[in-house]
Design a protein that fits this description.
Elements lengths: L1 H17 L1 E4 L7 E4 L3 H12 L14 H12 L8 E5 L5 H8 L4 E6 L2 H13 L5 E4 L12 E5 L5 H16 L3 E6 L10 E10 L9 E9 L4
Parallel strand pairs: 3-4, 3-6, 4-5, 6-7
Antiparallel strand pairs: 1-2, 7-9, 8-9
Helix pairs in contact: 1-5, 3-4
Length: about 220
């Protein structure tokens, strides 16, 4: 038990050391532990873990897809109010926190990065809400019992898209509402989605190819 506590405490210390608590201007209602530079955080993460070739530290930034979904949820609380919500590939937990702020009955946030799980816990606490974060790969299931499945920017590579779309389709088939934020990634199957909102989202300079990304919130359509 002491080893688990030590790991949790070490992860919290790392997140605090690499970030500062701030609000992204696009969603000023939510405060997050945010890093200043992606490459520097990536290098620090590899140094701390002793591993190389790690995935990007998605938890340290507010990405365009998540910002768009969070904005949509904050502006349309009826989407989540009173419902069980799953924030999938949650990163910082921005989307889950937004759902909790708008009255979701429960929010579950899934990530495969232990630092992300720690950051989600810290970000939920900073906003005075409850988000149940877990380190888990859920993509072989259907997200039950969530009534709403939210995901920001998950179609950025072919292999990831090939796993995410079937998961989202299974969630939709059992009756869940599925919303995805996407800033124009190559592997989003647009023919399977209906656009519900679009935003011009300012982003961190070293995360994207331009300072503002046109980002769409898509609802998964019924299976064909």
């Amino acid at each position: 038990m002491s080893g688990v506590a030590t790991t949790v405490e070490a992860n919290e210390a790392f997140v605090r050391a690499q970030t500062r608590l701030a609000a992204d201007p696009f969603v000023p209602e939510v405060r997050l532990h945010l890093a200043a530079e992606a490459i520097a955080l990536w290098e620090q993460t590899e140094s701390a873990t002793g591993e190389v070739g790690l995935p990007p530290p998605f938890w340290g930034f507010a990405w365009a897809g998540g910002l768009a979904v969070a904005r949509y949820v904050l502006d349309h609380p009826e989407v989540v109010a009173g419902r069980a919500v799953l924030d999938l590939a949650a990163g910082s937990g921005l989307v889950g926190v937004a759902a909790a702020l708008r009255g979701a009955a429960s929010v579950r946030a899934a990530e495969i990065d232990a630092y992300a799980v720690t950051a989600i816990d810290m970000n939920a606490e900073a906003n005075g809400v409850r988000v149940d974060a877990e380190c888990a790969d859920l993509l072989d299931g259907d997200g039950a019992p969530a009534e709403v499945v939210l995901a920001g920017d998950v179609f950025y590579e072919r292999a990831m898209a090939a796993r995410f779309l079937p998961f989202l389709e299974r969630a939709q088939a059992r009756g869940a509402a599925v919303l995805v934020g996407d800033p124009g990634r190559a592997y989003l199957p647009r023919e399977r989605f209906t656009a519900v909102a679009a935003y011009e989202v300012p982003v961190v300079a070293d995360l994207e190819d331009r300072p503002v990304k046109t980002t769409t919130v898509w609802r998964l359509a019924a299976g064909r």
